[in-house]
Amino acid sequence: IEELDSIQQYSKPEERLGDLAYWFHKKILLAKKGKTKDEVFDKLSEAFIHNIPKALFIYMPLFAFVLWLFQSKKRWYYFDHGIFTLHYFSFLLLASLILELFNFFMGLLGHHWLLDTIITSIDTVIIIYMLYYFFPAHHRFYQQSRLKTIIKGILIFFINMFILTFILIGLFFFSFINIH
After folding, report:
1. How many CA atoms lie within 13 A of 47 on its CB side?
2. What is the pTM of this model?
3. Contacts of 147 (CB under 8 A, 6+ apart)
C-alpha cells in the first residue's frame, strides 16, 4: 500500500493511475492484506450473502414498478402491484428456505452419486416451480386471459432479469467496498 501511495504521489502525472483505478487497487491491496485468496473469497462471499436483504429491499419496488408498467393504470394502483410483489416474494423466500433446509438435511446423509442425483433433481423441480408460480399467481391476481398473462409474464421476467443483474453487480461491488 505504501509503495502504491508512493508511486501515485511521486510519478509523472501521465504515469499515475486515475482516481478510480487508484482507489480500486488500494482497496484490493487492503482486502488481501495478510490473507490468502480463499480467505478473501470467503469474506467477499459472506459480505455478499449478508447484503442480499438490502438488495431485495431495493429490488421489490422496482419489481412492482415493472408490473405497474404492464397493467391498466385505471384499474390497478402501484400499491396493488406492491401487494402482489410482497405475495410473490414471500413465496420465493419460503420456497428458498425449504430448499436450503432440504439441502442441509440431505447433506448430513453424506455424498453418494444416487443421493446427489436425487437432490439435484428435487432442487431443479423446486427452482422451476418457483419460476412457474409467477404465471398462475399473476393470472389469478390480475384476472387476465392465460395468453395475456404468459406474454406479459415473459416480458416482465426478462425485464426483471436485466434489472436484477444490475442490482447483483452493484451488490457485489458494494460488498467488495465494505469487506473487512
Report:
1. 18
2. 0.78
3. none
